[in-house]
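Standup, Tuesday
Yesterday: got the pipeline producing structure tokens again.
Today: sanity-check two examples.
Blockers: none.

Example 1:
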Amino acid sequence: MADTLSRQDFKRRVLRCCILVTVWEAVSGQIHYSIPEEMEIGSFVGNIAKDLGLDLKELSDRGVSLVARGRTQYFGLNLKNGHLFVNERMDREQICGHIAKCVLNIEVLAENPVKLYRGEVEIKDINDNSPSFPENESALEISEYTARGTRFPLEKAHDPDVGLNSLQNYKCSQDSYFILNVETGDEGVKYPELILETSLDREQQAVHNLILTATDCGDPVKTGSTIIRIVVLDGNDNAPEFTQSVYKVSVKEDIPVGSVVLRVTASDRDEGINAQIKYSFLKISERFDKKFKLDPETGDIQVTAKLDFEELVFYEFDIQARDEGGLSAYCKVLIEITDVNNHIPGITVTSAFSPIAEDSLLGAVIAILNVHDRDSGENGEVTCSIIPENLPFKLERSFDNFYTVVTDRALDREQVSEYNVTVVATDRGIPPLSSNKTVFIEILDKNDNRPVFDQKYYTAYIPENSTPGVSVFHMKANDVDWRENARVTYSIIEGDRSEVPLSSYISINSETGALYALRSFDYEQFREIRFQVQAQDGGSPPLSSNVSVTLFILDQNDNSPHILHPSFPTDGSTGVELAPRSSEPGYLVTKVVAVDADSGQNAWLSYQLLKATEPGLFSVGLHSGEIRTARSFVDKDALKQSLVVLVKDNGQLPLSATATVTVVVADSIPEILSDLSSLSAPADPQSSLTLYLVIAVASVSCLFFTFILVFLALRLRRWRNSQLFDSSSVTFSGVPVSQFVGIDGVRAFLHTSPQETVLYKDCGLKEFCFQGGSASNTLTGINSAVNKQTESFDEETSTRNALDIFLEVSVLG
């Protein structure tokens, strides 16, 4: 009944401790909670949101969470109310052992912005364990000759609780021979021992049974007991004696297995069998027994398993030296383990934030690391660094063993798109140990680079008259950005032909940059197209660059030569050239002038006499077009010579044109008239038509003769003016009279070369001359000059018409 009441009282005390738990205290800027052990799962620990100054809404918005380290998660966080609650039942003795203050650290991570909070929960001990002895009953053999005052160490009880809840005292049942003495060691541990107060007498009492009780000071008080059975031995009256009552030694934790750490020595003043001593552990715990072995003959204590400073720092046990007569002595052995640097530092990536934008601000958090080393002292002090050192990142220590990897300078994805950041943790042991952890960081692209064309400007060529839709050439622009930021589209943005939309001439494939001609070009209309092409990426906002493009039109032989002289009459008359009968071979009769609207070799003209009334009488200059006499005239040569001249260009598949030149052979105009009269005399007298023609010719001849006289008079008067031709820069000496036609003193001289020709007018001399000029203006200049020549020769037209009538009459005759 008393036991049941004690349990109920204990439960009430535990519940009261849970209700009165300390919620908050500030220690070095950290949150602190205290709770008793063995609390139920789900029990309230503290209000994290309130203690950190966070709104409940911020808990989910900022991604607040507890940082896990891969161990048992004793606590959980309720994001709805911000409460920290018990997630696993906690046994303080299992978690912290004999450590007086049992503290569990908690880390709370908040994101957006990233911030790490540190807290601790102290686990308070409750009296949930009773003191206990290794065995319920133990035997102790004592010789009857044992002297009074001899001490007999007893097996200690064990209580895993701490403080007042741990073992505090021993009590022993009443006995007239023995009294209980409790000694307190250096570490505050109490050691029970029996002191022989009265000499033993085996004959009076051979066995003594004592009850040893261990108690704590918890609430309620808990106890544990064992029975000590003392057997009184007869005989041997000298017990062994150790050289030291306490043996202390320090060994390194990396001592090899099998090494002897200590030798205990005892002696016995007896002789013979009573002086033979055997050494043994006195009730050593099981885990101590696995670490050490005692040689019963020599007293050597040997290491049987690898020691670990982080597991246990201090070993304490009792050794008994017993002779063959049953007498024994006891000593205490204390073995202290010293730390060596045998644990590699560990690195845990608690949070990583990758990928990151290349325009991230300096100091942006990339990863949060936790560094830990199981060693102690300098062996457990860890420093961290980043390799290689030239990376744009650095380490910053937040608190304790937490580090953050942050940006140290601007990032550029076009230079480096990803990083493997290796964090090296090195302790200060001798020799130092280190470990590393690699964090992969990917850099997100920003549209910070414009497309760049592979040429500063483009020049392309396309033949005229090409098929519409033909591909001209491709252009390429590269963007060092990534994905959409590097996807380039092309467009034409401007040109130099404002009167006609550029889109009617050319187009560009927006994806490939291929340029196409939409129509057939005419070299004679325009010879080049200048425009700009824009390359724009797909970023937001997009970036672009422009390049100038010049498209040259290549000439094709699509224009036939155009005859400028002799020009085709517009009034039905035919042009006539005069050649004196006395002309020597090589006499320049006239010149065929032609132009070609094409350019280059397509405009190189050659002249050829295709047909003549008298073959062999005239020759034509291959490149000059000059018609010269090939031999002297003879009487049988016809008065009227008809020449057909072929003008051909030099293009592939050459084009040509023909010109018909009529040459009248006579020394003067009157002679022409007389010759024409003689040609018309033998007409048929019976033909009335012939008579009428003769009459008409005679009348016209008289009128024309009168006109010639007037003309000669005018010529004499203007003779002085004609001398200007001799002193001018253009010399006409050697030019036959047949090249100058007119009745008003106007001379027209036509001259050309194998190249393109432009016609100019000298107003002061009232003459026209051809000089080298631009091929693009050839037709315009020539036509303009010919029109002016026609106007200035109006007075000459009647003369030419009269000559034509005479020639037609002669032909009819």
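Example 2:
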Amino acid sequence: MSYKDATLSPQERVQHLLAQMTTDEKIGQLVQPFGWKMFTKNEDGSITLTEAFQQDVREGRIGALYAALRADPWTEVTLETGLSPREGAEALNTIQQYTMEHSRLGIPIMFGEECSHGHMAIGATVYPVPLLAASTWNPELYERMCAAVALETRSQGGVATYSPVLDIVRDPRWGRTEETYGEDPYLAAQLAVSAVRGLQGESLAAPDRVIATLKHFAGYGASEGGRNGAPVHMGLRELHEIDLLPFRKAVEAGAASVMTAYNEIDGVPCTSNDYLLDEVLRKQWGFAGFVITDASAMNMLMQDHGHNVVETGEQATAISLSAGIDLEMSGYMFSRYLSAALEQGLVHMEQLDRAAGRVLDMKFKLGLFDRPYVNPQIAEQVIHSQAHIDLAREVAREGMILLKNDAELLPLPATASGRIAVIGPNANKPYNQLGDYTSPQPAGKIVTPLEGIRAHLAAAGQEERLLYAPGCRIKDGSLEGIPYALEVAAQADTIVLVLGGSSARDFGEGTIDLRTGQSLVHESEESDMESGEGIDRVDLTLAGAQLELFRQLHGLGKPIIIVYINGRPVVERYIDEQADAIIEAWYPGQEGGHALADILFGDVNPSGRLTLSVPRHVGQLPIYYNARATRGKRYLEMDLTPAYPFGYGLSYTRFQYSEPVIERATIDIASIAKPTTPAYADTLTEVSIQITNIGQRAGHEVVQLYITDVVASTTRPAKQLKGFHKIHLQPGETQTVTFPITAEHLEMLDRNLERMIEPGEFRLQLGSHSAEGKTILLTVKA
């Protein structure tokens, strides 16, 4: 069989294989059921395949499996019933071996796994959520994190991950805000490229790389009212300039897969949108990978299922396949209805061959036909290695953001004798430190803020300085824990109050006695979850009794350091005004407690910067720094300035900016290459600025470049991020940062949505965040 000849190209092997496949076998390559339902675990850690799965394999009806190693309350896979890293690798080998030996043509399974912030499997390293990783403004660090995730995933046999999430957030009430990089397309594009490089590397066939799946295509973060999967009202200009930019850049970087979004855009569901999936993705961008649906998204096309654009399953599969869908995630539409759709003439065999061929092409590129198995010993060695634990801590401490530091309360003195009261619902709840899409965790793996602070004090022989009380729960409005919290705080000199939200599903973690701080187990206890997929809010205030807890603690007159652990911004003006210091920690992952202690005690100078504008009031939404210049300026009650602007973050030192200098202040438009030529990426001029550390501590600064097209033929954003550099300076040190200016920095879309540059003035702003900086003009002459 020539398709087994590894000397042939993947395309040649695909054509030889398709020629031997039946219609049912081709349809089977488009089918990806729930992987964890295909087997049961035995007492010795091995697995037994279900009879149904074995039959489907023998009949060629399965091409991929979704999340075979996923463990969480939704899958009902627990620490006890799930698989260890070694067992997971052995299990996927068992599945793959049966498939290779019992399917007619020996076509391997493609295993797709969830890896938003670490492989969602038991034992894997749990990194900070993407929102925190983006807040590092360090693409190189994020690439290392993605490479580590790829290694852990591939070592067990997973070959595709459903990340990165490239949705641009327009309303942070949306529960999936934590999974994104924030509100800016340029920053998201840089991180998207890092994710693709980190996950895919130089070759998908490498034993430490996996497919990157760009999602959700497209507009998913701009849904009506911040509601998950709600309609999106957006013109093509905004779609291309904002939401599609990160996808285009990731495709140019070589991304191998794209996932469609649940939402519709202007009445057309993304799952059946041929403009997006064929015209833009394939024809304009030259995408050569495969397109996968989100879970059960094709079902939503049918009458009474959501979008209601077709009546039957046959019609739903037909419009999806015709638009460009190649693989169905965890649905049953292709397996049930595609054969009949072919018989009815709703789709044609050429379209089925195209989709099946794309999936098979990726299997050949992954090397699955030639090397279908993994070494369980390697999985045991690399998963949750010390190097990966250290990396999780590094990312967490680079992404935490110091929002306020009155009277330089922070960092706390390392050798002081004063007592510290750690209080709050997120002070010692392990699962509340993690984002959604997290597997069950063994006791002691997740370092909470309380544990991180305790470890830091213990290392100095000062553990007796530490006090603790939970105070309240995340969503519960009960005030019963506040008296005990006040009693504890009264004994302290400084209060660290850890508030925020939770994306923790019901892991059976139990709860905490608010009056004593002791752990309890109540199976019926309501979940803390107020963020995550499908958990959207009408407000951005703190839930439950958290604000009241702060008010009463504030009444003690003691310094209060607020630490927010959460998946979306918190809008609490009273806390903003009255707290002495505020740290935004997002969901910092398993090493978050250590990272927080590193920052609180000054071992690490905070360098995180916001990737979202934090409003002063939810009524300001949508609020983002790159709004159109024509937008209304204020409400009756307040203007549109945020509480904390995009790009903002403080340091324990201070940085001084010189006046910027531009190499050439005037450019002849005739000298600018066309967008379709390689020369379009050439440097037209350079702008430079000197930054000096005028403080007493070494630290990182994120130097940011924003560009404003002063006058244009279509309305333009007030400013747009077009460059950034994260630099490290010793006290008194000066560094010159230079930004090359290319045609892409100055481009816009004309009325036909073609990329072009208009003559005129461009204002270049260089500074520490979007709301301030030094400016200089660049002129493009006709």
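Quick observation on example 2: The longest strand covers residues 683-693. Residues 449 and 593 are 4 Å apart (CA to CA).
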